[in-house]
Write a sequence for this structure.
């Protein structure tokens, strides 16, 4: 579990399927990350659980520490086809504009670099997702390449361990 001043991140499990479907049914959210049926959500969450078991990391539910309300997801996702670990974040629209994505992703990056010893983390952001691009830039990511993820064009941003640690003053 990762905690910040306002947030708690815990590994997602198959028990989160109904919540996952609700998060992704908002058209502003699904525009970039897609919508899910309950069966698709269960399959995706099982894959996330498997990644936690095999790699020691995966996506997390992001909860408000004060209330326990789940407000989004954030974590590290291994992409076999790219040979890269990606930091990803998705939040319910009611919680946009409050700095939660930057706070959660910053904590995930620190965990990935400090605890897991990763040398580079990417962020794959679909074209037009200006809010996620802004989060990535605030965290120190820079564009690396253009690519296709889930059949859609995206810009792959990257942040290496040394640059992250120097930004953090370590």
């Amino acid at each position: 579990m990762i905690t910040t001043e306002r947030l708690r991140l815990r590994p997602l499990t198959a028990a989160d399927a109904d919540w996952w479907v609700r998060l992704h049914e908002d058209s502003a959210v699904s525009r970039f990350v897609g919508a899910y049926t309950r069966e698709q959500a269960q399959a995706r969450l099982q894959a996330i659980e498997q990644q936690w078991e095999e790699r020691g990391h995966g996506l997390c539910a992001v909860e408000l520490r004060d209330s326990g309300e789940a407000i989004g997801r954030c974590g590290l996702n291994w992409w076999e086809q790219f040979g890269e670990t990606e930091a990803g974040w998705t939040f319910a629209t009611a919680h946009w504009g409050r700095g939660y994505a930057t706070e959660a992703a910053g904590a995930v990056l620190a965990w990935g670099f400090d605890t897991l010893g990763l040398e580079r983390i990417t962020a794959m952001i679909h074209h037009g997702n200006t809010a996620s691009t802004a989060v990535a830039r605030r965290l120190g990511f820079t564009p690396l390449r253009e690519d296709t993820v889930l059949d859609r064009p995206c810009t792959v941003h990257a942040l290496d361990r040394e640059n992250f640690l120097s930004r953090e003053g370590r």
About this structure: The chain has six helices and eight strands. The first helix runs from residue 17 to 25.
